[in-house]
């Protein structure tokens, strides 16, 4: 039976990855490769070896016997007994080898070679015991197969030849099991890396969402402050509405995804607050929520665009501003647009915190499958547009139920929401 002739290069120091695996092989086997797995692999391998050796010896004996009398190969039943005797020795040596590892080389390599020799040198006596037990000869401890005959007689060359064959078999078995241990360790490393990557992505998204909360709160408090001096009653009503808005903001900030309808309801509450501050200067129009499909979007993905439309649309002039929020589905793509009017000749600034936040979140969650553009469309309009994959499947049912309850509370907390939307749309 052919095999590789070297044991120690199985886990060599030539590459950093192989060196790391060999340095930690003992921990890898004890944690990744269970003894039951080792037993199954070695059993399958040893059954194959036993069958191939028995068939080879039997076929050769039949061929030689056809040309003349004489037994040149041990009987098949003796070889089966030989492999049964060698099996526990193989399992013990392989398990010890894997537990031992290959580092440091000056200490482990001699022990590894000793294990290989113990197994291979046991092959000859095991065969002789098999012959004796099956009635084809005497055990090694008596007669012509005594110990002195094994070391000095003609049996010595047969013993050495058998040991040479079985040391290659041992090398194959050790390579097979070591390769399995390395594969399992590599697979587990891939799983851990994927888990760490998901955790890193979640942490990045959480950080980006956390940037929105203080940014939104600052804008809303600034809105209420403008009404305290001249209309305290309106400011009080806005504080109540602000409480509902902040509750929804905190709830949405804890999720990766929300329903599109919930996002638009949140945007509408925010725009209603801003509309109370700027009175007749601000006109809003929003897409009909009843006609929207049940799809999911990243939580608070529209909020920075809405804030940007209000703050930068009204700043720098005393004229009226119209903000339009639209959503549509085109094939498997969801299209979201926030448009606001701007005075003619307004300078175009750089992306602020909100726009950068939207761009980074889309890149993290969708990569190149999502696009975001923001800029002056014509002389009097600024358009921010998101194109992202259509997500029909949302998170677990508990999150969906929470989202539905939030939506219902949001509608009851702002009974004038639909009227304001309809009035703005008209």
Characterise this structure.
With 426 residues, the protein is of the alpha+beta class. The protein has two domains: 8-196, no CATH class; 229-425, Heat Shock Protein 90, CATH 3.30.565.10. It contains 14 helices and seven strands. It has helices at residues 16-23, 25-31, 35-65, 76-100, 105-121, 123-133, 147-152, 155-228, 232-253, 260-278, 303-314, 353-366, 397-413, 417-425; strands spanning 257-259, 282-286, 296-298, 321-330, 333-341, 371-378, 381-389. Strands 2-4-5-7-6 form a five-stranded mixed sheet. A hairpin with a 2-residue loop joins strand 4 (321-330) and strand 5. The longest helix has 74 residues, at 155-228. It is rod-shaped. 30% of the residues are buried. Residues 1-31 and 396-426 have low confidence and may be disordered.
Helical/strand content category: alpha+beta
Mean pLDDT: 75
What's the helix-strand series?
HHHHHHHHHEHEEHEEHEEHH
Would you give the CATH topology of the largest domain?
Answer: Heat Shock Protein 90
Q: Shape from CA axes?
A: rod-shaped
Helix count from the secondary structure assignment: 14
User: What Rg is obtained from the alpha carbons, in whole angstroms?
Assistant: 39 Å
Strand order of the largest sheet: 2-4-5-7-6
Please give the CATH class of the largest domain.
Answer: Alpha Beta
Q: Name the beta content range.
A: 5-15%
Helix content bin: 55-70%
Measured between the Cα atoms of the first and last residue, the distance is 88 Å
CATH superfamily of the largest domain: Histidine kinase-like ATPase, C-terminal domain
Low-pLDDT residue intervals, each spanning 5 or more residues: 1-31, 396-426
Number of strands: 7
The description of the largest β-sheet is: 5 strands, mixed
Architecture per CATH nomenclature, i.e. the level-2 architecture of the largest domain: 2-Layer Sandwich
């Amino acid at each position: 039976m052919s095999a590789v002739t070297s044991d120690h290069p199985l886990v060599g120091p030539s590459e950093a990855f192989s060196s790391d695996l060999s340095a930690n092989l003992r921990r890898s086997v004890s944690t990744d490769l269970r003894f039951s797995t080792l037993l199954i692999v070695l059993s399958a391998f040893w059954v194959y070896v036993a069958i191939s050796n028995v068939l080879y010896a039997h076929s050769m004996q039949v061929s030689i016997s056809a040309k003349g009398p004489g037994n040149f190969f041990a009987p098949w039943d003796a070889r089966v007994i030989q492999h049964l005797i060698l099996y526990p020795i193989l399992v013990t040596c392989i398990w010890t080898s894997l537990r031992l590892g290959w580092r440091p080389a000056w200490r482990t390599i001699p022990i590894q070679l000793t294990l290989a020799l113990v197994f291979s040198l046991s092959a000859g006596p095991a065969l002789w015991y098999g012959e004796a037990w099956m009635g084809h000869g005497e055990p090694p401890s008596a007669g012509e197969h005594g110990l002195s005959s094994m070391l000095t007689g003609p049996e010595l060359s047969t013993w050495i030849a058998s040991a040479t064959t079985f040391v290659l078999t041992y090398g194959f078995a050790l390579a097979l099991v070591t390769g399995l241990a390395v594969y399992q360790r590599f697979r587990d490393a891939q799983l851990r890396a994927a888990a760490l990557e998901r955790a890193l992505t979640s942490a990045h998204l959480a950080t980006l969402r956390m940037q929105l909360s203080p940014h939104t709160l600052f804008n809303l408090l600034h809105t209420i402050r403008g009404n305290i001096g001249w209309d305290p009653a309106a400011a009080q009503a806005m504080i109540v509405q602000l409480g509902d808005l902040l509750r929804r903001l905190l709830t949405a900030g804890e999720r990766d995804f929300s329903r599109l309808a919930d996002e638009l309801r949140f945007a509408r509450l925010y725009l209603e607050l801003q509309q109370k501050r700027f009175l007749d200067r601000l006109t809003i129009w929003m897409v009909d929520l009843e006609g929207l499909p049940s799809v999911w979007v990243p939580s608070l993905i529209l909020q920075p665009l809405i804030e940007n439309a209000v703050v930068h649309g009204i700043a720098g002039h005393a004229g009226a501003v119209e903000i339009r929020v639209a959503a549509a589905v085109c094939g498997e793509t969801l299209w979201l647009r926030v448009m606001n009017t701007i005075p003619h000749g307004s300078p175009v600034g750089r992306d602020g915190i909100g726009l950068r936040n939207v761009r980074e979140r889309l890149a993290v969650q969708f990569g190149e499958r999502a696009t975001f553009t923001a800029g002056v469309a014509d002389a009097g309009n600024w358009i921010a547009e998101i194109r992202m994959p259509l997500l029909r499947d949302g998170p677990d049912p508990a999150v969906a139920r929470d989202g539905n309850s939030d939506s219902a509370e949001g509608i009851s907390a702002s009974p004038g929401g639909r009227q304001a939307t309809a009035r703005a749309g008209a």
